[in-house]
Batch of 3 targets.
Target 1
Amino acid sequence: MTTAFLEDERCVDLLLQQVTSGLDEAESAELERCLERYPGLDRRAFESTAAALTLAARLPAEPLPVPVRARLLAQSGAGAAATPVGDLAAARQARAAAVSPASPVRDHGRAAAWWATAAAVLVAIAGWYPRLVGPPYVPGPVELRARWLAANPGLAPWEFAPTADPGAAGAGGDVVFDPSTQRGYMHFIRLRANDPKQYQYQLWIFDAGRDDRYPVDGGVFDVPAGETEVVVPITARVNVGKPVLFAVTIERPGGVVVSAREHIVVLAKPRRA
């Protein structure tokens, strides 16, 4: 996942800009949308590395020792050959090569070029990083939903209301879904924990363009014991054009193709204007 992220130059540039000079509102939203594509990225480690390189580039300039410079270039070149991010590393190496080994680094621009070479070395060893510091940080559904909503302020959640079904007692929450991307999340509060061997919850999305007898299957899910608040990504089986109702039912393990709707626990529909 780290390699795929480093190949995404726009995403890398935005994250570097956030650390070094900051982003405006539109750029921040673009960055959050971009980062959703890389849930395995250790964002905090990347930001710390970028901040360290930036700080170092602002220190008083010193001539780069020739042996050190040669070793850095050799290592960055080896890393480029061994990873799909070779083009990025090579570009940074080429810029760094413009610094003469016999002359001191006299300005910020040349210092930045040298530190770009150091960054290329970090890229080359990116494959070792997880083994040194442990598994990468992977945000959970709660954090992913929060990021997604922050990047899409125009999406309004629909509130879940419990039904009279015994399994719905005290349940609530909300659901938000974007037809343009077919992405969405359900947020539940006090929905009763289930035993997956006995039954599972299943989401149904009623689409204005489809027969109400056959709502879209939004996926099955579980509520772990002891959890009073859970967030569940929506996995619609087919495209939804215009949702008009979300319903969660209790079904047999694995779900069903067509629900008898005998146990509907919560419903969500848009508020009337």
Target 2
Amino acid sequence: MDRLDSEHRWRSQQGPRRRWARRLGVAIGGLLVLTTGVYLWATLSTDSSTIARALVWREADVGDQDRFPSRPVPAGSRRSPLATGARAELDVATAERDRPMPLDDVLAETDTRAFLVIHDDAIVFERYFDDSGVDKRETSFSVGKSVLSTLIGIAITEGEISNLGDPITEYVPELADRDERFSAVTLRDLLTMRSGLRYEESGFPFPWGDDTDTYYGVDLRAVALDGSEIESPPSVTWHYNNYNALLLGLALERATGMSVSRYTSSRLWQPLGAAAEASWSVDSDDSGFEKMESGFNATARDYARLGLLFLHRGRWNGRRVVPTTWVRAATRAQTETTYDNQYGFFWWVDGERPRRFYALGNLGQYIYVAPDADTVVVRLGSEWGLTNPEWLEVFRQVARFDHSGSSHEAG
């Protein structure tokens, strides 16, 4: 009897365990089906859903220019070749190594894709890695903000935009309909990141938040019009904010009556003698608004041309492309920041070398301009590799070298 009782108790205990196991299996199976279904939906919806893009594309990377639709920025028929000087072999020291090491080794270890040094208007150092190359367009991330700043300066010169003191509501009046406080926010406030607009960096891969909305949004005009919110008075506090670039792009589009891509081509890219067609990534085929905060794409040499244009205070081959007054204002300290370096009009100022300035994008995209050393440095990468202070120190070391020698023309 004891044996029968024991067996009965064992079987009675196994029943609930089996039912629990079956329920767990069903729950896990259901979760897998749901997850698979959500991912399948997201994969098929990246053209129409911001959340889908965040779930599938996740962290921003240099391949995003191939994911987003884009609009061409044609170069003109008159391409302006860059001279090539005596090629330099450069050594630099980094924080991890006390002794200088070949710059080539530093670049290879830091996920650099392209690195270009121009001194005395001639290329003296040029390297490409992975699948990059002379003709390869690389995405800008926030270097695109510096391009936008340049376009704003040109539009002011042409009278399309009156001046930086204009309230954003003069060009985007519906903002005041939603909140009359927008009437106090000027174009200058937006350009200096002192707009007082709310912005919270949630980061990826979370499928919500300001980072996701302003980067992966499928209708960035709507994001700018409906998502921007007043948090504090303008002209007071510096706060890096992608809504600022979207609103300025919207104002530029309305003021000029043409797409930002077309304006970039006719007013900047063609006068600059760019060697290759560039492009602006757009939010979606349906909306067709340029990703003003991050979506410009160009070759390393053409980024260098932009740096040279600013080194020469807005002149290119004897032609005035950008007003000297704008170049000076855009690249000098307009406001303090929460970092060691000051901020101009969507350009950064080197805190240790105040006469130098740079455009900066996520993952370490740089156009570093050193007028006192007659040098422009372009670094494009798939990852940061080094911190921002470390890259700036590398650029300072590169600019100290005496690059000399004969020159000939390059493409």
Target 3
Amino acid sequence: MTLRVIAVSLLAMSLGAASAQDSYVTEVQQWQKEQEKELRADGGWLTVAGLFWLHPGKNTFGSGKMNEIVLPAPVPDKAGWFSLDKGTVTISAKPSMEIRLDGQPITSATVDGVVMKQATLTTDKAGRAGTVTFGDLTMFPITRGDRIGLRLKDKNSPARREFKGMKYYPINREYRVIADFVPAEKGATLKIPNIIGQINDLSTPGYAEFTLGGNKLRLAPVTEGDCGDGSDLTNRSNCRLFFIFKDFTSGHGTYPPGRFLYTGLPKDGKLVLDFNRAENPPCAWTAYATCPLPPKENVLSAPVEAGEMFAGHH
């Protein structure tokens, strides 16, 4: 082979590698744009403006400060109440309010001798939670353990109006690693704490072992979607793995409690971990989320200088 042919071959290989790198960078940049689009959306986390834990009986709501659930104007000063009775949530609102449940107008009924607009809200335990809408505001029940709360979203929230964009580390292909995936025994779980002090035992299908920056590391996921009990992930098109992790950048460039990473399923004992797609949890954007926190198994003894950074968003 002549020197000219060798030179041409090396140039072609170099151009091919550069093209692959450019394609990868473009792909991650597109993912970043989609992340920001989702965050900015009408129902995105920037619109979450309140979380109100309900007690049994009446929980009054309105714009007046004396209410247990204080909402922004133009909600009336005294607008009505949400009732909690044995896990069932009911709204009773003033007849003058333009209010809808799941997009349909709420009709009036007599409640304790008073005419009110009344409806029962399904909770997320029953599947999709019932959503009450009035103006730019929406409210729906969430269940966390034995607690039921109402989450408030406001399309005109200060967080959404003042949002200045997301911040990322430079895209670095070295942070896209191929891990060995080690299956867990059937019934294995991880203890996942959350930001409101609860601990949940969630099933885990195994753990990923990989090398990053010369460090041998391990992360254990939980499953999300239609994954069964996690013991057999074959032919699970609507299932993905969810890693909640913390590393040496946590609190030093990234969100202090940790970050999230979603992946596809392992194949032939291998799993792709692309830390350029590591993302902040919703709690980085709003004080009214109930985010899971990293289990002790997922506290890494190394920095992961890739993915989304943190600049004190709320």
